[in-house]
Design a protein that fits this description.
heterodimer; A: about 1000 residues; alpha/beta; seven-stranded mixed sheet; 40 strands; globular; disordered N terminus; B: about 190 residues; mainly alpha; about 0% strand
Chain lengths: ~1000, ~190
Amino acid sequence: MDDHRSGDEVRLHWKSPEDLRNGSNRGVEPAFNDGDWLGGSTRRDFLTLAGFSLTAALAACRAPIEKAIPLLVGSDDITPGVASWYATTCGACPAGCGLLVKTRDGRPIKIEGNSSSALSGGGTCATGQAAVLSLYDDARLRSPMVHGKASSWSKADAVISNTLRGAFASRQNVVLLSRNIGSPSTNAVIEEWSQLNPHFRHVIYEPVSLSALREAQSECFGRAAVPHYRFDKARVIVSIDADFLGTWLSPVEFTRQYVRGRAAETRRSQHVQYESRFSVTGSNADLRVPIPPSSHGAVALGLLRRVAKAQGLDGCPEAPEPASALATLDAVAGLLLKHHGQSLIVSGSQDVAVQTVVATLNQFLGNIGTTVDLAQPSLQRRENDSAMAALLDDLDRGEIDVLLLHGVNPAYDHPDARRFLAGLKKVRFSVSTSDRMDETSRFADAVCPDHHFLESWGDAEPVQSSFSLAQPAIAPLFNTRSAVESLLSWSGRPLDHYAYLRDYWRRALFPLQKETADFDAFWDNTLREGVFVVSPTSDPVPIAFRGDWKRAAEAVAGLARASVASPHGNTYEVDLYESVALRDGRHANNPWLQELPDPISKMTWGNVAAVSPATAAALALADGDIVVLRSGGTATELPVLVQPGQDAQTISVAVGYGRIAAGKAGNDVGVNVFPLATMNNGSHRLWMPNVSIERTGRRAELATTQRHFSMEGRDIVQELSVADLSRSEPAPLAEHHLPSLWEPRPEGDHSWGMVIDLDSCTGCSACVIACQSENNVPVVGKQEVQRTREMHWIRIDRYYSGAPENPESVHQPMMCQHCGNAPCETVCPVLATTHSSDGLNQQIYNRCVGTRYCANNCPYKVRRFNWFQYAQNPSFDFHMDSALGRMVLNPDVTVRSRGVMEKCSLCVQRIQAGKVQALQEKRVVADGDIKTACQQACPAEAIVFGDLKDPHSRVSELRRDHRYYNVLDELGTRPNVGYLKKIRNRIETQELK
Amino acid sequence: MRVRTALLAAGTLIPALASGIMLRNLSRIGIHQGYAPEQPIAFSHRVHAGTNQIACLYCHSAARKSRHAGIPSASVCMNCHSLLEKQTVEIEKLKEAVQQKRPIVWIKIHNLPEFVYFNHSQHVLSGVACRKCHGAVETMDRVEQVSPLTMGWCLDCHRTHAGVPTSGFARAALNLRGQSRPVPGLDCGKCHY
């Protein structure tokens, strides 16, 4: 164990070998170390000091002088203390969801989904929720940098414009290497550059690439675009390693669609997931089959062969199929054939041949035009791996003269980062628009920091004809400049971004609509709504299939045969994936995301090598054992996590960790595994075969938030099978038959309650960050998480059931249940936690003396204790120790101090705000007026909050639902928060055969 | 003997008195009743609200819609002062600030601890008069804190008005719903979160 507190003096004690293996035991610390707790002083010293401090406190009892500085010139739009909301577009990932940003007194403090958006609805993801904290990141650059020194925009512009002008004049190669740019107006600027300068090219690069998917559509349908998928229209969904509810393509939109497709109790969609690791998507599947990454193609081909055969098409090659999937393929193919035109097959494979087979399957099953929309495709992803590979070759040869880097960090996330850096050094002049001195921009000649997306104008077109606008919610904090403005300025058109954007919309988009002839009205309305959808003028042209599917199938079959021919022996396959929180590592310096538990493994602050229980048993590995993964010339050390449901031949590791120049929160957390990725046929491949695993004998303590996965025989999570749905009766609640020792409490106008649908919850964890952002929940750091002292008010418990090789799982958001008879209230000696007249269990910080009796007596274990002062404490330098980082705090919620208990308040500040708003508008509070932060963020609409006193409110209706139950109801706690049972719709592969 | 008794009495009385004073002071920590700091501009509420009868909410308009009553921005002052001919040293200070685009740094008088949430609009809209808490501001040249602003003082009012609707709207709302619940809350969580 890595416990080296004081050399050999602290001995390790463990309760059982199991305990030791779990690594949860730490050395037993002496409670008191001979006065060490007071820094070597005695009791007498203590009393003297205490006496002195009381006198000093009395003498110094003068409140600090508070200032009040009003605006010099008032504005109708700004009232101190009243929030303003701005519609904008999320820039945290290429999905481009619609957002509403809450600003208080000029600073954005909370991100919410824009319900006007037809794509993402009111939902968001964890990463999007956390993006507001990235705005207040201390690591952001304060000004442009030229040759490593702070400079001014005019100086930087002069240098860059001269260089570019010279380069264009002498026909030198200029390359813009960028991430996906969703903005049509920005793409128009880049398009102009390309047209004006034949030696300019634009390369789009993403570390986790969907290039193969796009290329396959080009081969099959002649359109190089990622289709717009419609999971809500599919009755059967087959995903081959695409984590579409977690990280793949557009998770918020897909979660919304997916849950809608499953909401109907009679016409539920069925979902089959073939995957190597246990993903969020896999945890929701009706049938989940673990397969190694090398078999993705074989599974797709196996389905294609069966479908083609059933449709009388010959010529599909046979290939060996993975043993684990064999039993299911007939059944799944049967399901697919049964639902012609109502199925959807997606794949996360980075092999063009596999994606071609998948596209062919969708074509043969009649899904093109129904669940796979190519007429109005997604424009979110346009990366091109072969263009990136060609650029790398050109860099090698020193043929690139000027390189502009926008939003990319290949020195960190390219598999061949060293080669990229060597090439970058050969470039005559390089410019980066990175917001920080990251791994790549450190080596750029000039860094021209881009705005954070909350400071910037912009637009997006995530799906063709669905536009959205982005507007700044705050004036730029630093001397940064929008990258579009930089590009415009370097091309000799010094326009500001707003003027350019408005002009672009007037020219390009305003003519597409007929509602209004007044551009100003159109602009104002779109800005207010945030979104603008152009309705199609004509019926979509049918898209002809022209793919050479037999060639692709032959290629896939060849690979499958080759992989079978080289037996695994003692080697494994490594599968790299994006985690729900950090994604590709771009958000590594966001402490909220670092501390967000992974939805499945519950890991925080670092990545692990996930191995299956079988592998762990074979190699005698336990959680926390450090192993070396050797592949070719690389050796990577990682701690092990035994992951139920993990494919036995595969070791999965999350990318995005191990940054070295992200900032104070993200540096040196976990291990960078991008170097393990390979290039294959010109495409990035995030898996590799033939990796050996070796123990090092060392151990590391993991920072996981859930260490106990058994329900100990209690019905904490309840499930129903589809067959039982019609027969199910509402379970009688304890409050109706168990006697109570307590007098009925006085009741007020309301009784606030919540119902969470376990069938809708996918475990995406957006609610956890939304709550953290709304309620000023502190970040405590890795060491404190290891001590189980994380502060999240809402956690998502994940339980497994069934065999560890491939268990079923369920996600249960758990927060204060606001018990009618709350066990915490009866044990508080100072009445710091009491019951309000409207059904809330209230926690009063200024009354709390920190006995922690309440946490001890809480059966749901939802109370959090402030072991330390987390704000303004250099020991917890995450964001609350810097004046900049504290700007994200919600002024309507107290920042708690050391020694007090806290827990979910059901967003009492939002309840109060809702009541005040009703009072201002001279009406009573209506159902739906008040939404808690977790409810608002949920893309699956799994959380419903409302007044239980109102029999017609949605929450009351759901409480009468036959699926409703209270957790640990038998204790008689009578909670106001309850759950709807999860529905199991298992696909019985044997029966279907 | 008498001396001894006197000494004994003094010996008990003096510490008792001292601790009594100390206890009283202790109990008044954080209470700033009577706090009347000097302001950067000697603005007189007596002249404005008293003599000239300007309504409180004309300047403190945010009190109707925000938790903060708000101090008017200088542009609100200039609504009148750009037209009025009267000039004093203090008005000069205001005009100078406006010309130099320099915000005026007022000293905040009524301060609540940070663990309390108080909302002006809620009270104003429920019909609580400004003077109920702020006193006769229209008679003050320099505003001072009249009320103790302690929790006990808040609750005194909340208890007295329990069951008595304080505004026409609240009364109407209660009648509509046929309920007899008090409007002001006594729940801890109404103000502490």
